Amino acid sequence: MSANGQNRHARTSRLVRKLAVAGTGAAVLALPLIGATTASAATPAAATTAAKAATTYPDNLDGWIRESLAIMAQHGIPGTYEGIHRNIMRESSGNPLAINNWDINAVNGTPSKGLLQVIDPTFQAYHVPGTSWDPYDPVANITAACNYAADRYGSMDNVFSAY
Hints:
By secondary structure, the protein is mainly alpha-helical. Helices cover 53% and strands 2% of the residues. Mean pLDDT is 80; it is low at 2-42.
């Protein structure tokens, strides 16, 4: 028992009940006052990480472009959905397995591959960390091609023909 004649646990329980009535926001703020060592509320960093982990993209052209844009944003690579989509439709009609076996690159042994028709040396030079090393992987292909276009033309948005 404490000096004022009340059981310490009873005082703490009363405080917790009062805080519960006041709302969870007040309870979280008061947790350190009642001896808690950690709060159960998510920190902003944890919430951001959880949001990133929860983001899923459909396995289709729209999803591939959106996932690529998210990766590009993390790496400071410029580009818009419209610019990427326009170039994909021109280069491969949206087929991630497209391969060009007839142009000068193919004649020289390095055919253009994937959604944005990237040759292997360009794909390897402009590969973006966190993506696959497979040039047929839609997200890796888009992201590497946009990285190349950003370096050469300022953005994929500035590309209106074969590049």
